[in-house]
Design goal:
The complex is a heterodimer of chains A (124) and B (403).
Chain A (H helix, E strand, L loop, with lengths): L8 H8 L12 E6 L6 E9 L2 E10 L2 H14 L4 H5 L3 H6 L9 H7 L1 H11 L1
Antiparallel strand pairs in A: 1-2, 2-3
Helix pairs in contact in A: 1-2, 2-5
Chain B lengths: L3 H5 L3 H5 L4 E2 L10 H13 L10 H21 L7 E4 L2 H16 L5 E5 L8 H10 L2 E5 L9 H8 L4 E5 L11 H11 L2 E5 L11 H4 L3 E5 L10 E5 L1 H6 L10 E4 L4 E3 L13 H17 L1 H20 L4 E4 L10 E6 L4 H10 L2 E2 L1 E3 L4 H7 L4 E5 L6 H18 L1
Parallel strand pairs in B: 1-13, 3-4, 3-5, 5-6, 6-7
Antiparallel strand pairs in B: 2-8, 7-8, 9-10, 11-12, 12-15, 14-15
């Protein structure tokens, strides 16, 4: 059940100690994206082998929501095929956070920043 | 079926002026309490700037604003809400296409086509785009009943890059077959730009079925506040276009040297938007959809058929455009032999009848018709047959005074 309490323990924890954080040299896909609202930036890297994502990492600075979202989202990408990750919908990316942002369109942009970055990376 | 008597109760202005006969909705419509209240409610309960703040009312304002984008998308049946850009009015929509697409893709020697029946808002931008770019500017003529001259249209569309036309004329009152015209443009390899200012308030709109590349319209002619306009554009075109206005909100990232644009549609909404007007547009769409746009169209056709009949009884009154209501949107322009249009509308005003006289922002068309101005009566959901009876009676008085 999604809650609208944004600052839960696991989000603060991921903000302080993000998962899948770092750079991949010789990445197959890469993109950086800015949040138009606050200027936060994240950069994502994907390593692909046999049509599937074998490694996914992100770098950059952002708020607790965007950092937690990126941490979980990078993990979610691992093991998926390129076809699968092309089809990822907003709702799927938001579900990883288990918080309800439907009344917070501006915060939703923070949560969706990793997905925006992915779409940009796949386009490039 | 639309019950105009009941609808009038929703419009405070008719309570303030119970005897007034308002027949100028083609210039601007009146507003129902639901729209006025939506605007007032916004300022009373969740006034904040949008797409910035994270506090409760800021998120409510952002959500309110963006929900109207979705509502507008559904109202005109666009594929995605990213295809809906909020503008100030129709004119700004035309200018956005002219600057964002035209200035980037129209080159010297290209051909831009429009028609003789256009409102200035769908004429001057293309004329000036041609001047700026060195493109050819072609104006499709009309035949005697006001239809587009098909031979001329075929000739001029050949090799054209852009074809701009109104889906309904604000003087001739004709509803043009926008779907067929968009198909002709597509066959010729031209983009279609549709001025929906008169048609969108009066009938169902489906941009996918119409097949247009761009469509613009104004909220104020469909119950919404002044300052609420819409430009629809196909997403892939919007992606390729340059911004129209530069500054805040339309950016993703700015450094001393360069700027990255925000995503479509925000790339085209620079600065703080007219949030209250957009919120009001949402309430206007709700109101119209509550009636059903098909019903709105039927009601207008019924009134126009009656108006054509009653105006036909006035000696020396010349109706501009077709005599049949079926091809018409909710307006009739006319001239009264031996009486200047300004005198007609001033005398009608003495009987508290509101009509418009002048060139109706369509000087090229009036030039073609060989008259400097005309008088125009237009109807909307709150008009009744008795409004038209009052118009006819007052016109008979004018006839008597001028002989």
């Amino acid at each position: 059940m999604a809650t609208d309490d944004v600052y839960q323990e696991f989000i603060i924890e991921l903000y302080k100690n993000p998962l899948n954080f770092g750079k991949i040299d010789n990445a197959d896909y890469r993109a950086e994206i800015y949040n138009a609202t606050c200027g936060d930036m994240i950069e994502i890297y994907l390593k692909v082998q046999g049509g599937a994502v074998i490694e996914a990492k992100f770098m950059g600075k952002g708020c607790a929501i965007s950092q937690a979202s990126a941490s979980l989202f990078m993990g979610y990408l691992k093991g998926k095929t390129l076809d699968d990750i092309r089809k990822i919908r907003k709702e799927e990316a938001l579900a990883l956070l288990k918080i309800d942002l439907s009344k917070n369109p501006t915060r939703m942009k923070c949560a969706l920043l990793p997905l925006d970055a992915l779409r940009k990376a796949l386009k490039s | 079926m639309i019950d105009a008597e009941r609808i009038r109760k929703d419009f405070p202005i008719f309570q303030a002026h119970p005897r007034m006969v308002y027949l100028d909705s083609a210039a601007t419509s009146q507003r129902p309490a639901a729209v006025i209240d939506a605007v007032s409610n916004f300022y009373r309960k969740y006034n904040a700037n949008v797409a910035r703040g994270l506090y409760k009312i800021a998120e409510e304002a952002t959500l309110g604003y963006e929900n109207v984008r979705k509502k507008t998308q559904m109202f005109i049946k666009a594929r995605s809400d990213a295809e809906i850009i909020f503008t100030k009015n129709s004119t700004e929509g035309a200018n956005l296409v002219m600057r964002g697409w035209g200035a980037k893709f129209i080159r010297k020697g290209d051909k831009i086509v429009t028609t003789l029946m256009e409102h200035h808002s769908d004429f001057v931008p293309w004329q000036q785009l041609a001047k700026m770019s060195g493109a050819k500017f072609e104006v499709v003529g009309l035949d005697d009943d006001g239809a587009l001259d098909q031979d001329d249209l075929g000739r001029k569309l050949k090799g054209a890059k852009l074809f701009a036309f109104s889906s309904a004329s604000n003087v001739l009152g004709i509803r043009y077959d926008a779907k067929a015209l968009c198909a002709l443009a597509r066959e010729a390899g031209a983009l279609s730009v549709v001025d929906g200012a008169q048609s969108v308030p009066s009938m169902p709109t489906d941009v996918k079925a119409m097949g247009c590349d761009f469509l613009f319209f104004s909220g104020h002619k469909m119950l919404a506040p002044f300052g609420s306009g819409v430009l629809y554009g196909r997403e892939e075109l919007l992606e390729k276009m340059d911004p129209f206005l530069y500054g805040s909100s339309m950016i993703r990232m700015v450094t001393k040297e360069r700027t990255q644009w925000n995503d479509v549609p925000h790339k085209f909404e620079a600065g703080t938007p007219i949030v209250d007007a957009v919120v009001g547009l949402g309430a206007a769409i709700d109101y119209l959809e509550g009636l059903g746009m098909g019903e709105v169209q039927k009601h207008e056709e019924m009134l126009i058929a009656y108006m054509l009949k009653r105006l036909g009884e006035v000696r020396g009154l010349d109706i501009i455009g077709p005599q049949s209501a079926s091809a018409r949107t909710g307006l009739v322009a006319f001239s009264l032999e031996g009486v200047h249009p300004h005198d007609v509308s001033a005398m009608l005003a003495e009987d508290d009848i509101c009509v418009r006289s002048g060139h109706h922002c369509a000087m090229p068309l009036h030039g073609h018709l060989g008259i400097p101005a005309s008088t125009r009566a237009s109807v909307y959901i709150y008009n009744r047959k008795e409004d038209i009876d009052a118009l006819a009676a007052s016109l008979q008085k004018v006839r008597k005074v001028f002989g």
